[in-house]
Write a structure and sequence with these properties.
Layout (H helix, E strand, L loop, with lengths): L4 E4 L14 H12 L6 E3 L4 E8 L2 E8 L6 H11 L7 E7 L7 E5 L7 H10 L5 E6 L12 H5 L5 H22 L3 H10 L1
Parallel strand pairs: 1-4, 1-5, 5-7
Antiparallel strand pairs: 2-3, 3-4, 6-7
Helix pairs in contact: 1-5, 2-3, 5-6
Length: 194
């Protein structure tokens, strides 16, 4: 078992580009930039930005859905069905309220935790049994903010949070080849103890 599809979650459009909810896009953009000849291009049939690349000697698809977050499953489901990619070969990268900025966690399955992008992907794939790379953005309550969650995720992180999120993206990028090779235990140990 290995990863054949890496999906970064976010909302399309310049007004959302720098918001916390787009952390998944940030990681996939960074990943594409590190891979020779890898360029995300608009692909209408998958309603997303798509690239085919090679990681650790394996063919991997990168995807950023161009639907809004709560319809991410349309894009993920279409690409996974077309290329016969099983749910446990999918890695979804997303922002996570329950983890502080600077921390990233890799896990397989589990509930959506209220994340609408994950809910829609679960519905489209017919299972929760896919991999998630959770990039911590913190929760407004744990940061003593009175902001509503929906408002919080659709705003830019403060400068100090942005630095921490970027560090967690860098740490995450280092374990992507391990995940692609199916070395999930090693990837988790490296990411969770770094």
């Amino acid at each position: 078992m290995s990863i054949r599809l890496i999906v970064g979650l976010g909302n399309p459009g310049p007004e959302y580009e720098q918001t916390r909810h787009n952390a998944g896009f940030w990681l996939v953009d960074n990943l594409a930039n590190t891979l020779p000849g890898c360029r995300l291009q608009r692909e209408a049939r998958f309603n997303g930005m798509v690239a085919k690349t090679s990681i650790a000697g394996n063919e991997v698809w990168l995807l950023e859905p161009l639907t809004f977050m709560n319809r991410s499953g349309q894009s993920v489901g279409a690409l996974a069905r077309f290329f016969k990619i099983k749910p446990d070969e999918v890695l979804v990268v997303h922002d996570e309220l329950d983890i502080p900025p600077g921390v990233a966690k890799l896990k397989k399955g589990g509930s959506s935790g209220g994340h609408n992008g994950l809910k829609d992907i679960t519905a489209a794939l017919g299972t929760q049994d896919y991999w998630r790379l959770r990039l911590g953005i913190g929760h407004p309550r744990s940061m003593n903010l009175q902001q509503a969650v929906a408002d919080f995720v659709l705003h830019r992180p403060r400068r100090e949070e942005q630095v921490l999120i970027e560090e967690s993206i860098d740490k995450s990028l280092s374990i992507i080849p391990l995940a692609v090779e199916g070395k999930f235990d090693v990837a988790m140990m490296q990411l969770h103890t770094a």
